């Protein structure tokens, strides 16, 4: 393996490990659910993604064949992590709105901000039509 590939693979692995460590720490230490979402969806996703990209570079440079598995895993991870975080955040906002759960760290206790003539929040739009 040439020196450039070794440096690139090593730096991507160290970068990925750093992002994964920061994301895991954020998940464990941040105070509320809404702030905890950022750890796994942003930092950890970048960490795992950079380790997978390092794997995509390492194996062909060692004389092996190129495989699309790592690329597909990375794309799947980058697509599904924000979508799942959005669904968790919407569920949390609905729980806050119906007072099933209150967390002063979220600062959503008084309801959503005023929209001042704009369309309603996508999460809370057209609620009157869904009530019997």
From TrEMBL:
The keyword Transmembrane helix applies. The chain crosses the membrane at residues 6-28, 71-89. Keywords: Membrane, Transmembrane, Transmembrane helix. GO terms for molecular function: sodium:proton antiporter activity. Pfam families: PhaG_MnhG_YufB (PF03334). Residues 95-132 are annotated as: Disordered. It comes from the Bacteria. This is Na+/H+ antiporter subunit G. The lineage of its organism: Bacteria, Pseudomonadati, Pseudomonadota, Alphaproteobacteria, Sphingomonadales.
């Amino acid at each position: 393996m040439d020196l450039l590939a070794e440096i690139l693979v090593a730096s991507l692995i160290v970068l990925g490990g750093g992002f994964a460590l920061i994301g895991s720490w954020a998940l464990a230490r941040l105070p509320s659910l809404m702030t905890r979402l950022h750890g796994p969806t942003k930092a950890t996703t970048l960490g795992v993604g950079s380790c997978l990209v390092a794997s995509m570079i390492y194996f062909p440079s060692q004389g092996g064949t190129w495989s699309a598995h790592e690329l597909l895993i990375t794309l799947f991870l980058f697509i599904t992590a924000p979508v799942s975080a959005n669904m968790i955040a919407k569920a949390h906002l609905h729980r806050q709105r119906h007072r099933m759960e209150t967390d002063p760290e979220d600062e959503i206790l008084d309801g959503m901000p005023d929209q001042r003539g704009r369309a309603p929040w996508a999460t809370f739009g057209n609620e009157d039509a869904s009530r019997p």
